[in-house]
Amino acid sequence: MSWLDEIKWDEKGLVPVIAQDKDSGRVLMFAYANREAVALTAEKNTAHYWTRSRQKLWHKGEESGHFQNVSAIQFDCDGDVLIYQIEQVGGIACHTGRSSCFFRTLLNDEWVITDQVIKDPSTIYGSTNKP
Amino acid sequence: MSWLDEIKWDEKGLVPVIAQDKDSGRVLMFAYANREAVALTAEKNTAHYWTRSRQKLWHKGEESGHFQNVSAIQFDCDGDVLIYQIEQVGGIACHTGRSSCFFRTLLNDEWVITDQVIKDPSTIYGSTNKP
Q1: pLDDT, tens digit, for every residue of A91-115?
Q2: Res. B49: pLDDT tops 50
Q3: 3-state secondary structure of B31
Q4: What phi, psi does A125 have (nearest 5°)?
Q5: Which is nearest to B20 in space by CA: A30, A60, A32, A118?
Q6: Domain of B69?
Q7: ipTM for the complex?
Q8: CA of A131, closest CA in chain B: separation in Å?
């Protein structure tokens, strides 16, 4: 039995994935992956997901250049969630141009932006030659 | 509009929640919460979830004593995932008696247990008087 068979895929054939900075421990992103995406991630050590909005395999960084080098894959007790331990190329995981997608914090019953934009998203997308 | 209305609840009225140790940064758990659970978490600063297997509100620690003191709630760019930044009472988040639910790592195409059991689960559950 393959290690991939041990993953409990949901009714859509997906598994939730937490992308975590392997050094700082910061959670950078949350997305879903299908079997092909997880297999490719393990084989090539670069994060692949399944984009639910675009309904396709997504090699993170293919548009932005912000690839994620994967150093480890972790698995939870229930067998239905993964963590990719990553190094974030360019230091930007979020499509808003921020380090992490989790840039809002609840303060006095309001979501407050607690992270700055590192790079204007309009300069990130539309080019495949970003560092 | 309440901050709770800004959360994009899924078709079951749930939102995925990542529980992260506020000091070490380790991801300890992944679960789901409904509106009531998130509201209670923010109000009482102790983690609440919705258990999909038991279909009920779940005050983490109610059986094990392993409550999670919540110091911050973070929110992602798409508005559909939360992080609870927590202090894990007892140092055990997982029902297997381990620190984290993510105790398996992919090594040479196998899921290898890379975390030890801190406490026998049979001694954790069945008592509500654990520290």
Answers
A1: 999 999 999 999 999 999 999 999 9
A2: yes
A3: strand
A4: -95, 155
A5: A30
A6: 3-125
A7: 0.94
A8: 23
CATH number at residue A55: 3.10.20.810
- Distance from C-alpha of B77 to C-alpha of A96, rounded to nearest angstrom: 8
Evaluate whether residue B130 is within a structural domain. no
Q: How far is B67 from chain A (nearest CA, A)?
A: 18
Counted residue by residue, chain B has a size of 131
Whether residue B131 lies inside any domain: the answer is no
Q: Which residue of chain A has the CA closest to B104?
A: A75
The answer to the question of residue A130 being in a domain is: no
How many domains does chain A fold into? 1
Chain centroid to Cα B17, Å, comes to 7
d(CA A22, CA A66): 16
pLDDT band at B129 (very low <50, low <70, confident <90, very high): very low
* Domain assignment present for B22: yes
d(C-alpha A124, C-alpha B61), whole Å: 44
* Site of tokens 């997608």: A101
pLDDT tens-place string over residues A25-47: 999 999 999 999 999 999 999 99
Give B74's strand partners: A105, B83
Decide if B81 touches A, using CB distance below 8 A: yes
Chain A interface includes B55 (CB < 8 A): no
Contact A73/B105, CB-based, under 8 Å?
A: yes
Q: Is B26 on the interface with A (CB under 8 A)?
A: yes
Q: How far apart are CA B125 and CA B47, in angstroms?
A: 18
Q: Six-digit token pair at B111?
A: 């899921």
* pLDDT exceeds cutoff 60 at B76: yes
Chain B closest CA to A66's CA: distance in Å?
17
B109–A75 C-beta distance less than 8 A = no
